[in-house]
Specification:
Number of domains: 3
Helix content: 40-55%
Structural class: alpha/beta
CATH class of the largest domain: Alpha Beta
Number of strands: 16
Distance between the termini: 56 Å
Shape: globular
Largest sheet: 12 strands, mixed
CATH superfamily of the largest domain: Zn peptidases
Radius of gyration: 26 Å
CATH architecture of the largest domain: 3-Layer(aba) Sandwich
CATH topology of the largest domain: Aminopeptidase
């Protein structure tokens, strides 16, 4: 009954929104602008909107996805030249910036079941009717995982569910050991590179990753070409580089991979896997899984194949044989610059990658064509006589799919200049249809909420912000619903990794945003030969209306950052959010204490059962150490300081604008506040990741860990390190608060 009441209240709130038609906030001053400047900016943005044309997005997608364009391929270079030519024609100072990176490609691939019957996997994605590019086999990269090591291994097969640490804890409880065996894991649960990493840590000798139809196949809907979901032959390619250590070229950590860069030997590269790994289709996985012996897996481990899922461990036996060409290949970033008229040494950077595993219509071309149309429209404004105050840099990155290669090498090569000049980085990757999604630095949260309120949604009478809010009210968790109805701003999500914002935010401390639409264009084409123009125009953003919406959101964000009188950073949302992260970590301590009690109870219960029933074979879990007192006082004190500093800045900036002579100084302090959240020594055991508030998890990959140093130390029950990391986080937050105080003093 309570659930029904909450649902009715949520729907009532949505109906109230729908009854209010979209209207830009014409009377609301923008962050960083005076009221008069806000009116002029909205007039400029109306001109920007009027030049946007969906036809361009469609034509460019068809051109750019016409042939496979993976790293090092001929068509990838043709695309780079084409994109650069467009930017030049729009008035940008454009260049191709080259780096030389390690890129392995398959020399041979073999997976076979050797017992109880012999079966060789097809490892092939055939052409399908109605998809004009799916049959380009001579140019397609075969299905594989980049940065898997070579290997020829044979052993019994064990099913490990998603292959994350918690799954191995379940196996241990059941007495199942993967040492000397090959594991098979389904996609999902974490980033793919975590699966062979954790398998190797537990002694496995090989890893197979397959796409289960429960996740993105026929369990979700009709399969391609009838529907959008993954068919029995579809395979998800992808990198398995250990990116939680560092992204980019494995041989040139921390420096740009230019021709004369010092490279470590391939055998010493720590981000390569320790065991061979290969992705397969669920058609190929079925005979392997059908022959697994052993106990039946828990319900949460079961996929949607027409079999009973077993753990395995003895049968079947499987052979994996992989060999790669370990080549150094060139990559080409397209860098297009529109110099600022007043503050040319303050840079707004806007990027989307352009390389794909195969044809890549959705990933990444759907995001790239929106960026291109956005840049073209801004170029038209410049040709009419307008000039941005700050410099705008557009980037079409190469080599993202293999491990953020293009963006990372560029950021490392230009690190000193970026540290001095970069105001913010705005990223897109791929785009769909539906609801606005935003992640990023919470110093930009209020700013990007303002932007979202000013863009109309293509399907409704709402703004894209209001539609996203309505979706949270109806479909979100209880917490999300409450916040959507009562908080002034929608909360943006923190960034882990998985796209080109990583080197800017987490290595260099440049405030970043990641933006896209989705939720109404699901499917299973990801990283397969079926991610094509035909698939996207049938099942994705079919009329490119949300591509235009993405251009409007990102174009406004770029224009406002470039033209604001004061860079639009705001700190009260950041202070509140970090306070939430701190509360989560303190609650984690309580949950670990409960876990310890439960574990010790299980040990006692198992021992008593063993005495009563000596014939029963029970696996007794390992005893967990007691959770000691953890002193969070330094963190709590730092948070109080941060909240005070943020409130003082909000009050100071609401009054008279700063003295014009000190405007540049204020800008420098504001956009460099994000730098103060980094630490030169980085995080424990991975010094490349310097940001102390956001990082990809060591065992989650793409998934974020907030306050990562202390959180992961606590999760690993490393209490000495936890105390040290609490002190480091507290000092970081206090340093950040001190920079806010410096900014406040520049206001009258």
């Amino acid at each position: 009954m309570k659930t029904c009441v909450r649902r009715l209240l949520a729907l009532a709130a949505v109906f109230q929104l729908v009854l209010t038609p979209f209207a830009a906030q014409s009377n609301v001053a923008m962050l960083g602008f005076s009221p008069d400047a806000s009116a002029r900016q909205r007039s400029l943005e109306a001109r920007f909107d009027s030049a946007l044309t969906a036809t361009n997005l469609r034509e460019w997608m068809k051109r750019l996805s016409a042939r496979p364009h993976h790293l090092g391929s001929p068509y990838n270079k043709e695309n780079a030249d084409f994109i650069a030519a467009q930017f030049k024609s729009w008035g940008y100072d454009t260049k191709l910036e080259r780096f030389d990176v390690l890129f392995p490609t398959p020399k041979s691939r073999l997976v076979e079941m050797t017992a109880p019957e012999r079966f060789t996997l097809k490892l092939n994605e055939p052409a399908v009717d109605g998809d004009a590019t799916s049959g380009q086999q001579s140019e397609q990269l075969p299905s594989y995982n980049a940065y898997s090591v070579d290997g020829d291994v044979t052993g019994p097969l064990v099913y490990v569910n998603y292959g994350i640490p918690a799954d191995y804890e379940e196996l241990e409880k059941r007495g199942i050991d993967v040492k000397g065996k090959i594991v098979i894991a389904r996609y999902g649960g974490s980033w793919r590179g975590i699966k062979p990493k954790v398998a190797a840590e537990h002694g496995a000798i090989g890893c197979i990753i397959y796409s289960d139809p429960r996740n993105d196949g026929y369990y979700q809907g009709d399969v391609y070409p009838k529907g959008s979901y993954r068919n029995e032959n579809g395979v998800q390619r992808g990198s398995v580089m250990d990116m939680p250590l560092y992204p980019g070229d494995p041989l040139t950590k921390g420096v740009g991979a230019v021709p004369d860069a010092r490279r470590i030997p391939i055998k010493d590269a720590p981000t390569l896997t320790k065991i061979p790994v290969l992705p397969i289709s669920y058609g190929d996985a079925l005979p392997l899984l059908r022959n697994l012996n052993g106990a039946v897996v828990p319900e949460s481990w079961r996929g949607a194949l027409p079999i009973t899922y077993h753990f395995g461990g003895n049968t079947p036996t499987v052979r994996i044989k992989l060999e790669f060409n370990w080549d150094i290949k060139p990559i080409y970033n397209v860098i297009a610059t529109l110099s600022g008229a007043e503050r040319p040494d303050q840079w707004i950077i806007r990027g989307n990658h352009r390389d794909a595993w195969v044809n890549g219509a959705e990933d990444p071309i759907s995001g790239l064509v929106a960026l291109m149309e956005e840049a073209r429209s801004i170029g038209e404004l410049a040709k009419s006589g307008w000039r941005p105050k700050r410099t705008i840099i557009y980037a079409a990155w190469d080599g993202e799919e293999e491990g953020l290669l293009g963006s990372t090498e560029w950021a490392e090569q230009h690190a000193a200049e970026l540290a001095d000049k970069a105001v913010a980085y705005i990223n897109t990757d791929s785009n769909g249809r539906g609801f606005l999604g935003i992640g990023g630095s919470h110093t930009l949260e209020k700013f990007i909420n303002q932007v979202g309120r000013d863009v109309p949604d293509p399907q409704t009478k709402l703004s894209v912000w209001e539609r996203a809010r309505a979706n949270q009210i109806v479909n979100g968790s209880a917490t999300a619903r409450n916040e959507a109805m009562n908080r002034g701003d929608l909360r943006i999500f923190p960034l882990g990794s998985g796209s080109d914002y990583t080197p800017f935010l987490q290595h260099l401390g440049i405030a970043s945003l990641n933006i896209g639409f989705g939720g109404e264009s699901g499917g299973g084409s990801y990283h397969s030969v079926y991610d094509s123009f035909d698939h996207y125009t049938r099942f994705g953003d079919t009329d490119f209306a949300y591509g235009i919406a993405l251009a409007k959101v990102c174009g406004r964000a770029t224009l406002r950052l470039a033209d604001s009188d004061t860079v639009p950073f705001e700190f009260s949302n950041f202070a509140e959010t970090v306070g939430q992260y701190a509360s989560e970590v303190t609650r984690l301590i309580d949950s670990l204490r409960d876990e310890t009690k439960a574990s010790n109870y299980a040990i006692t219960n198992n021992l008593w059962t063993a005495v009563q029933n000596p014939k029963d074979k029970l696996v007794t879990p390992k005893a967990k150490d007691a959770v000691p007192f953890v002193n969070f006082a330094p963190l709590q004190n730092a948070l109080l300081k941060l909240q005070t500093s943020a409130a003082n800045y909000k009050q100071a900036s609401a009054g008279q604008p700063p003295v014009a002579a000190r405007q540049a100084e204020l800008d420098q302090i504001l956009f460099k506040t994000e730098r103060s959240l980094t630490r030169a020594d980085g995080l424990p055991r991975r010094d490349w990741f310097r940001h102390q508030i956001y990082a990809p998890g060591f065992y989650t990959g793409y998934g974020v860990k907030t306050l990562p140093g202390m959180r992961e130390a606590i999760e690993q029950r490393n209490w000495k390190e936890a105390e040290e990391q609490i002190g480091i986080a507290a000092a970081t937050i206090e340093r950040f608060a001190a920079e806010i105080d410096r900014a406040s003093k520049l206001y009258p």
